[in-house]
Amino acid sequence: MAPLRTIGRSLLAALLLAQVEGKPVATSFSAAVNAASLPVPIAPTAVIPTPLEGSCRYHPGGGTCPEHAPCCLNGYCSDDPRYCSTGCEPKNSWKESSCFPQAYCSNIHEDFGQPRIASSKTFNGNPYQFDFTTDYNTEGVNVQDSKLKISMKLDRIPNSYGRPQGLGSVVSTTRFIQYGKVKARIKTGSNSPGVVSAFIIRNEDPGDEIDFEVVGRDPTEAQTNFYYRTPPDMATDLIDYSNTGKQSLSTNTALDFHDYEIEWMPEYILWKVDDKVIRHVFRNETKDDVGIDPATGQTRKRYPSSPARIQFGIWDGGQGSEGTAAWAGTPTDWSKLDQHYEIQVDYVDIQCYYLGNETQTWPPAGHGPTKIHDGPYFTPGLDNRHGHDVGNSFYNEQENGVHPYVPFYRNPKLMIPIGCLMGLALVVVGTIEVVRRRRVSKVRWS
């Protein structure tokens, strides 16, 4: 496989584009999709600095989040359950237990007849209510004819290279899998150079990933890859891109559905297409890492082993950096105004190696905000993901009309009344000045 490791949690949030100019690079999937929507140019080798532990980046008071807005996400503090869910930063929150724990794997066969999918903007963090979230570009995801359809259309904003680029979408599971089998029947959307269709297992921290990708440069070829501890903000020159595999399938994957399967076990990974193994990797044959694995007492291996979410998505690699475009094919065809590309998932079957607790209440005792309420919340950095701090709801509005950690002039509900008060003040000041000058004038002529 080649590129996919650029951001974009969100998002999200404060997201990184990390691509290598002039040669094919591998990029993380969530990163790449989100990077396509970033309106602000970021140098290809730029790295967004990781905030120091014990400090939520944009918390004006400094340090960790306060108790009444305990969860840190994307550098912002809130008591919104979404902030306490996936991506919550335990060491930068009020307490590490302020963040919800990872929801562990549950066996599921989803045929998308009536799927439980939540937007990342509405997901309350409860994996017992929703099985999937739409993480980027919710408008690009829909379910039709019992198929999950994830589309990419031309973005209104040129990318950081000044080129028109598609705005991709991502759907993720709400639960984390640590070893097991994931099988999905997929029709790729890679019917133009540059279009990348992806089925991956990935986490942002520490950054382990196993993936299937098909690029529009050759939709008859499956690209497989795995990464070990490569978080989105990792410098590209530190990422190991040597674990790529390319396998010819002798069929155009964009024309029909095929079964793709990742069998991830503690000692090996198998990639399968239509029940045929096309690649295998054994843990004991991977490179050595620094330190000892406490589970085995042996030298740690550079083998993905941490819990991760399953993701499906599509993104535009043909309009990016020179290396990414060469890997994905270029240029991506955006000649038609209504042009769009779509990856379809007929079903996904997840068989867990370790199972979660299906009867557990959520959040588990001792986790999440100490005070649960129905809102409204203030959610900076989440309701608007393009770098603006203005949310559309407020924390404990009944008790605290102004969120104590957001400057008043960024509070939308205060902008109009404050503007009126400032206008009135100007009128009063102006009137006083006029009266003063008239008095001065009378004194001079008397």
From TrEMBL:
Protein's recorded name: GH16 domain-containing protein
Coiled coil: none
Taxonomic lineage of the native organism: Eukaryota, Fungi, Fungi incertae sedis, Mucoromycota, Mortierellomycotina
Swiss-Prot/TrEMBL keywords: Glycosidase, Hydrolase, Membrane, Signal, Transmembrane, Transmembrane helix
Keyword tRNA processing on entry: no
Signal sequence interval, chain numbering: 1-22
Pfam families: Glyco_hydro_16
Transmembrane stretches, start-end: 414-435
Database matches in InterPro entries: Beta-glucanase-like, ConA-like_dom_sf, Glycosyl_Hydrlase_16
Organism domain of life: Eukaryota
Domain GH16: 121-343
Keyword Transport: no
